Amino acid sequence: MMREKVAQLLKSALEENKSLFLIDLNISEDNQIRVILDGDKGVTVDDCIAVSRQIEHNLDREEYDFSLEVMSAGVSEPLTLPRQYKKNIGRTLKIKTKNNEKFEGELTAATHESCTLKWTAREPKPVGKGKITVQKEATLPYTDIMEAKVMITF
Predict the structure, then answer these.
(1) Residue 107: burial class (beta carbons within 10 Å; 0-12, 13-18, 19+)
(2) For a tag site, which of 34, 45, 55, 80 has the least CB within 10 Å?
(3) Do strands 67-72 and 32-39 pair parallel, antiparallel, or not at all (unpaired)?
(4) Is residue 116 within 8 Å of 108, Cβ to Cβ?
């Protein structure tokens, strides 16, 4: 009952700010509500406050004893939705597939089904000794991706 009420309030709050989207909603046995958001343009503190107020002010504390935590998806959190890939085009991703393949490169494209990475690699020359630098590209369906993280560079 509480989960449905919170989900409805959350849906209403997200309809007011279409650039935000839900990553995770978790409600523990002791009614600790944890909402993780992301946004096409990032998530501000004001965004979290607005969503928090929308939920908190519309839940009856007499009926439910709860705690509420609304936060943005952390930088170290893996990408889970195609919408997150789209907002990170141009950034470097590290991807591990279900076949244990590992890729690290610039995210150049993202659709509803897959993402495309480009990177440079050193490979042996086709003839003779030494190595040459080549451009590589891989298009990975989201269904094959076990984990994808944005690499932070300083």
Answers:
(1) buried
(2) 45
(3) parallel
(4) yes
Q: The tokens of 140 are what?
A: 């990975």
Cα 27 to Cα 91: distance, rounded to the nearest angstrom: 33
CB count in 10 Å sphere of residue 48: 17
In a structure prediction context, what are the per-residue pLDDT tens digits for the chain, which is 154 residues long? 788 999 999 999 999 999 999 999 999 999 999 999 999 888 999 999 999 999 999 988 888 889 999 999 887 789 999 999 999 999 999 999 999 999 999 999 999 999 999 999 999 998 888 999 999 999 999 999 999 999 987 7
- Among 134, 151, 137, 138, smallest CA distance to 97 is for 138
Whole-prediction pTM: 0.80
Closest CA to 3 of 80, 55, 77, 81: 55
